Records
---
Amino acid sequence: MLSAFSRAAKLKQWIARPDCPAFLKECKRYFDKAFSTTPEDSNHVADSAFRTVPPELRATIPAGPKVAVRARHLHDGVVFSRSKTHVGNSLIMYYPDGNRRDPPIPAEIENIVVGMDQRYTYVVRRQLPAPPGTVDPFAPYLHFPAKVFSSKISSTLETVSPEWVMSHYARWKLDKDRVVVLNLSRVRKVLRYTLEPLSSFHRINSAGIAREIVQPTVLRSSTIFVFLVSQNRTVRSMVPTSPTYLVP
Amino acid sequence: MEVMDRIQEVIRNTDTPSWVESVPRNFGDPAAGSLKADEWRTMTTIYLPIALISMWGEGTTHATPERASFLRQVLDHTMDLVCAVYLAGMRTSTEARTSAYLYYIKSWLSKLQTLHPESTLRTNAHMAIHVADFLRLFGPIRSWWCFPFERLVGQLQRLPTNSKFG
């Protein structure tokens, strides 16, 4: 049984490789069809599902002849749902316009629409930022990517292409005005901090908390960061960074 | 227990996507049993930190300033471990993350017996430091962790037997 297990593991790994022969991949597809217990989730929408754009979406969806409204969408192996269907699967961190230089924004998928060209679009409402001056107890822990937001979601609808989505997020209601947004991405570095005035470095230092600052121009490399360690009051650079940046 | 109530409340009321595995809603009760490794991971990276920071973090109020400061120290100490687990569990690894992991795990270990005098250092703590070496040598933990073998053990355990060896 042990050897069958490891043989199966090796086979799975081989099929997952990009250089695996197409023939084998085809075999797997048929094998899954015949024996898999979970039905193959297809994103293809039948022609009969298309209707005229619902009135509440007319202002958001570019004028097109017909669209189909879906409850969920399987993208890159992950299920995304509208909030009415499954709130947890509808919470997404996304890069507006697919621009990965700016930090991702949390939003709730309200609707999933499909165009006649079978292109999926999420219609979302952003989670509003917490009002200025709100205490964010999560801010000191730089490697725990949680942040306080307002419990309200935006009144305006926006459209998001599935490719702009970074990951899901977890949300917990802290009190009536605030929610905690925890980015669940296990891959990309979460960039929450930008360069701040010198005074705030000192404030953070004396509070005894390590904190990370990221230089906006090097965001794409996503590994360059500076660690401020308070106990010995030294600035420790984990990887070389630009000198203009180590001002303190 | 106010703390356990808060943790259970966070487990119950956090909206998570369906790929996040569930943990027992009655975590901490005898009936819940002990958590499995993967459930601990979910607890440590999602529910525990949210619950503890919301109770002991900046902006919370406590009976005395001493109490507040002590709880904050306990929280910061726990968060060292949370951040270490979080960094180690990433699906990509970089030298910066590995160094940060080492920083957190060392910081957590060095303060453990000061903040929790009743605790004893175990071999696991020593092993946790070596995880940094393995991250450097073998890359993301996902490619060398023991969950596949655990799955095999599970399959073997579920085999029907007549409870006799051989």
---
Amino acid sequence: MLQTCALSVLMFTGASQFALVGVIGGGGSVWAGAAAAALLGSRNALYGLRLSSLLGVRGRRRVIAAHFVIDETTAMAIARDDPSLSRFAFWATGLALFVLWNIGTLAGALAAHAFSNPRVLGLDAAPPAAFLALLAPRLRAREPLAIALAAAVVAIAVLPFVPAGVPLLIIAVLVSIYGVLRTTR
Amino acid sequence: MIWAGVLVASVACYGLKLAGLSLPQRWLQDTRVQRTVPLIPVALLAALVATQTFSTGQHLVLDVRAAALGVALIAVLLRAPFLVVVVAGAATAALLRLI
């Protein structure tokens, strides 16, 4: 339970947290889970790139700002026309989400702790639904949709033959190769 | 052991965020990076949906989770909020197990 809460405080990027927990919960190694979490966190680096000129943070403020670079804060910040509004949106969204996210995590961890068999509540069906909800907004074009379907099929196909969690790493390598080849062509 | 993974993954995720704010812009502005990185979460999330629904450990299984995913998909198509999608999926699995 402490580990669940630590994730929300220290990692603070939802998809990565779910991935780490999902891989470990599915019997995968801790390191496969950690790798999947880091790979999912790679998009935050691109968000940081877009935010860096907008926020203009240096020194200690940048160290703190970095922790708040996630989907929601980026969306809120780049949607403003005025740079000072952007900065306000970033910090306000970041702080509010950080507080609520951690309260929610604590409440969830306490609640789950109280039940001996999470399957009765259908909690094992919750992560796939959560991943689907996180995925859906990224599928507005044909290419990501095709990639998503292909990734799902390949993951299922290799799953019986490799340790749990490893299908994700195979997918990450394949999609990276595809992405680089496609742009180079 | 789990703690080590939690800490390492957290540091890695924070490092990526900080790198985005700190690295020279042209590094990450490379078109290959720009066009490839957004594809990674798409592929990984799809793979997570598939593996978490249709497997237990290393075994492929078809159980109530598939129906739960179907309901979650309908909720997503109806543009339901995140929590509603998650609860709809979990509730479907719980109800089907009761029957």
